[in-house]
Specification:
The protein has helices at residues 16-32, 86-89, 173-176, and strands at 48-54, 57-63, 68-75, 80-83, 93-94, 96-98, 101-104, 118-122, 131-135, 141-147, 150-153, 164-170, 179-182, 191-193, 204-207, 212-216, 221-224, 236-241, 244-248, 255-259, 266-270, 273-274, 278-279, 286-288, 297-307, 313-319, 322-323, 329-335, 339-343, 348-349, 360-370, 375-384, 390-398, 405-410, 417-427. The protein is mainly beta and 428 residues long. The protein has 4 domains: 16-83, no CATH class; 86-182, no CATH class; 193-250, no CATH class; 274-427, Jelly Rolls, CATH 2.60.120. The chain starts with 15 loop residues before the first helix and ends with a strand. This is Tail fiber protein.
């Protein structure tokens, strides 16, 4: 970098040595054209600057008092130079000529096409086939585009009326005849087929039968399926059939992702469902139905539940055939000043205290243990609020079909509930 400005020289303070250093730095800056990757800070109208930001391409610039004007470019590798007129080449001049034989007339005429030269233009019509460009009457050169790493002729519609385009001259293009490479064609028209099977690497076709994009990977064909309409952030996409994609809208907070009952599509489900409070103030039995048959865990919560008799409160399981009243294994043990154990038989025993005043709190957790046999395991933890009395237990029960209901009743089935409430929650 050779840029220098010694500012205002004060002869009463500047030594000869310092002045010599300043003058030599200034001399280097003058001799090098203030060369450097950034503009000189000591700008003034008429200052010249060799911008080497793009080294080995140097740009010779002139400061007009407001802006730096690029005058020409120098390639220090090939020792080539070419005129740069950003006021015309880069201002999207309206193209003349015909739709497929375009012309550009610059106020400062070009004298030759130079490799890597860049021009812009605004189209006055749509091209209908391969096209050419003739600038400053130098001669028509083909306009080409890059496809798969090779330059090819334009197709109809690559240039559209009113569109703005950028061209880069390439002396090696068009079989070394030289051509203008269209950097930004308007659109790409894909090859179409009812059964598209491109295999060449990078080959692209549109499958009109299934409306999918088929791209060759060098060995086979990869398919890219369009996104379903109305897809939004958080949605899930899945296949409903071969090459057919569907959309599952995003769920709500706390929901979980699962397969539907028919195992045909995903769906959202509440993590824990149910939970409606049920008063236990009347009746001899409380049935909770419509539990999903794919539930994996069921929890029955008791709050101050009581009956008017001495028959133990139990939980029974059921399926589409009804409530099952036998085959319950395990036991529940009550712990007070002694341990009292009752075996399960007609249902899972909630608490071992059979007093009519017993007020039960706690829960029974049912977990599906074996899908094939519809076997459920029970874990019981309850306590009383009217006495220092805790019951814990466990058991299991195999149903004849998938569970879809539970019943809370008593062993005798005749005592009436007279206080409290419960709820039943489930997870699938």
């Amino acid at each position: 970098m050779s840029q220098s400005d010694f500012g205002t020289i004060n002869p009463t303070t500047k030594s000869g040595t310092a002045l010599a250093t300043d003058l030599m730095g200034w001399r280097d800056a003058v001799h090098s054209g203030n060369k450097g990757p950034t503009a000189p800070s000591y700008v003034t109208a008429g200052l010249r600057w060799v911008d080497d930001t793009l080294d080995p391409i140097w740009l010779y610039k002139f400061y007009d008092g407001t802006n730096w004007i690029t005058v020409f470019a120098i390639d220090t590798t090939t020792n080539q130079t070419w005129a740069v007129n950003s006021g015309e080449k880069m201002s999207f001049l309206l193209a003349g000529g015909a739709a497929n034989a375009l012309t550009l007339t610059l106020a400062v005429a070009m004298t030759a096409y130079v490799d890597l030269d860049v021009v812009t233009f605004e189209a006055a019509s749509n091209n209908t086939a391969a096209a050419t460009l003739n600038i400053s009457s130098i001669g028509a050169k083909a306009i080409r585009k890059m496809v798969g790493g090779a330059d090819v002729a334009l197709a109809a519609g690559d240039i559209l009326d009113g569109g703005r385009y950028i061209l880069n001259y390439d002396t090696a293009a068009n079989s070394a005849a030289g051509a203008w490479i269209l950097v930004n064609p308007s659109f790409l028209v894909l090859k179409q087929a009812t059964t598209a099977t491109p295999t060449g690497e990078g080959q692209v076709e549109w499958d009109t039968d299934d409306n999918v994009l088929a791209i060759g990977d060098g060995a086979g064909t990869q398919l890219f399926v369009p996104i379903p309409a109305s897809t939004a952030a958080g949605d899930t996409e899945y296949f409903t059939a071969a090459k057919a994609k569907a959309r599952l809208a995003k769920g709500t907070a706390g929901q979980k992702y699962q397969m539907n009952a028919g195992a045909t599509a995903p769906e959202w489900a509440d993590g824990i469902a149910g939970g409606t409070n049920i008063a236990t103030t009347s009746g001899t039995a409380i049935d909770v139905t419509s539990i999903p048959t794919n539930a994996k865990k069921i929890t029955i919560n008791f709050s101050g539940v009581s009956t008017n008799g001495t028959s133990l409160v139990i939980v029974q399981l059921g399926d589409s055939g009804g409530i099952e009243t036998s085959g319950y294994g395990g036991c529940t043990s009550g712990i007070t000043n002694a341990v009292i154990t009752n075996a399960h038989s007609t249902g899972f025993i909630v608490h071992t205290n059979n007093s009519a005043a017993a007020t039960i709190h706690g829960s029974i957790e049912l977990t599906r243990e074996d899908l094939a046999t519809n076997t459920w395991a029970a874990s019981i933890t309850t306590g009383l609020s009217d006495a220092a009395y805790v019951s814990v237990g466990g058991g299991s029960k195999a149903l004849s079909a998938p569970l879809d209901r539970v019943r809370i009743t008593t062993v005798a089935g005749t005592n009436t509930f007279d206080a409290g409430s419960l709820n039943v929650t489930y997870e699938v």
